[in-house]
Design goal:
By secondary structure, the protein is an alpha/beta fold. It folds into two domains: about 280 residues, Mur-like, catalytic domain (UDP-N-acetylmuramoyl-L-alanine:D-glutamate ligase), CATH 3.40.1190; about 140 residues, Protein-Tyrosine Phosphatase, Chain A (Alpha-Beta Complex). Helix content is about 40%, strand content about 15%. It has an eight-stranded mixed beta sheet with strand order 4-3-2-5-1-6-7-8, with helices on both faces. The protein has a six-stranded mixed beta sheet with strand order 12-13-17-14-15-16, with helices on both faces. A hairpin with a 4-residue loop joins strand 10 and strand 11. Helix 2 packs parallel to helix 5, helix 3 crosses helix 10 and helix 4 crosses helix 5. The chain is globular and about 60 Å long. The two termini are about 35 Å apart.
Length: about 425
């Protein structure tokens, strides 16, 4: 089996769709000897900011000398981005080897008409890989929801719920309390939880945490303050529960202060439990954190911003960041959204900022038709120049052809859109 064959086998499970539940992933990992019980786990759920928190934690712990695995989804450009150890992606050879290892277990399940999903198979591969690499910590990002997400078979040393806002309402529920209940499913008995949730969502978190005797640390605006931002970095003052910190980050957006505060408070729980993590590692780790495709500037002539905002909360954050952190004459918006997102509610948030909008779509089979997207924008009533480009490459080329140096091109709407755009843009930069 070569890499392409391994990918074909894995992606073959996508036809079974999304099936929440823990029975199938438990069966696979049981047959692998429960690899996820061989290392300390930090479980990260929530709506937005999960990826940034995972990256901050990874960078801090690696800087302190720990061997750290990170499992996130989806990927931007290559599937190997999902499974990383000490900031190095799993190799094609390693992935093939692991597919061979789990294949007999999965095929036995299929014979019994108990087909796993793609995410379940890949999660099992990540758990096994981290065992083989003898990691000290595995930072595991929740895929969808929490309670019945495949990652929720883990027994973490600390859990994180970033924030909660409407998303995947067809699966998680219409009310914020219902969504919070699903995401709070990662809370385990006596396991500390760090959260930046607010309002009704926080009340649900606190109630479930109390039932499970899980200590809760709440991050609020009082835990962080942005001191300075410029073209190169931001500086934040962070009030942790054990100490205060002055940190810098190259990641864009004032909201990163909340993500940094979440990461630092999570690290402080580890410190309280006997793990040696220095202040120097915290400060340097945050300074050296990168998170491609999330509020990332990939070009300055013209300025091109990539952001994988794919839900209502993400669009609000993007809009706030455009207003607070960027100066431009015209915003040229390249927009590609998945069909199962809250498109009608997302559009009014971002459309008013744009002078020119280019609708497009990724190659994902859930991508929303760009002509229909144009029609929805037209119905908002704003006088906008709207252009349809079926291919992301064509959308980018057109945007660059009309952009002036004082303009900003923003590519957003989906991580799949951003991933394809980044692949094209970075490959072109490398040719220059």
């Amino acid at each position: 089996m070569n890499f392409e064959e391994a990918l074909d086998w894995l992606y073959g499970f996508q036809k079974f769709g999304m099936k929440l539940g823990l029975e199938r992933i438990t069966h696979i990992t049981d047959n692998l000897g429960s690899p996820h019980k061989n290392y300390k786990i930090i479980h990260v759920g929530g709506t937005n900011g999960k990826g940034s928190v995972c990256k901050f934690l990874e960078s801090i712990l690696v800087r302190n000398g720990y061997t750290v695995g990170v499992y996130t989804s989806p990927h931007l450009q290559h599937i190997s981005e999902r499974i990383v150890v000490n900031k190095k992606r799993i190799t094609e050879e390693e992935l093939v080897s692991l597919v061979k290892k789990i294949k007999p277990v999965v095929e036995e399940m299929m014979e019994n008409k108990n087909n796993p999903t793609f995410f379940e198979a890949f999660t099992a591969i990540a758990f096994e890989y981290f065992k083989e690499k003898n990691v000290d910590f595995a930072i595991i990002e929740v895929g969808l929801g929490g309670r019945f997400d495949a990652t929720n078979i883990v027994d973490p040393v600390v859990s994180v719920i970033t924030n909660i806002s409407p998303e995947h309402q067809n699966v998680l529920g219409k009310k914020i309390e219902d969504i919070a209940f699903e995401k709070a499913g990662i809370i385990k008995d006596h396991v500390p939880i760090v959260t930046a949730t607010k309002g009704d969502a926080l009340r649900v978190i606190e109630k479930i945490a109390e039932e499970k005797n899980a200590p809760v640390k709440k991050i609020s605006d009082s835990n962080w303050k942005r001191l300075r931002d410029d073209d190169l970095n931001q500086e934040f003052s962070i009030n942790g529960f054990l100490s205060s910190y002055s940190v810098r980050t190259a990641l864009i957006g004032g909201y990163q202060g909340e993500n940094i505060a979440l990461a630092i408070s999570t690290v402080e729980f580890l410190q309280n439990n006997g793990f040696n993590i220095s202040e120097e590692s915290i400060v340097d780790g945050i300074k050296n954190t990168v998170n491609p495709g999330r509020m990332e500037v990939v070009s300055y002539d013209p300025c091109i911003l990539l952001d994988g905002a794919h839900n209502i909360a993400g669009m609000k954050i993007l809009a706030e960041t455009l207003e607070d952190d960027f100066q431009f004459d015209r915003l040229i918006l390249i927009l590609g959204i998945l069909s199962d997102k809250d498109i009608e509610e997302m559009l009014p948030i971002i459309v008013p900022f744009a002078e020119i909008i280019i609708t497009t779509k990724s190659s994902n089979n859930r991508a929303f038709d760009p002509t229909e997207l144009k029609n929805m924008i037209d119905k908002l009533g704003d006088t906008k120049t709207i252009v349809v480009k079926d291919q992301i490459i064509d959308a980018i080329d057109y945007a660059k052809s009309i952009a002036k140096k004082s303009d900003l091109i923003c590519i957003t709407g989906s991580l799949f859109t951003v991933g394809e755009a980044r692949d094209y843009l970075v490959s072109n930069l490398q040719k220059c």
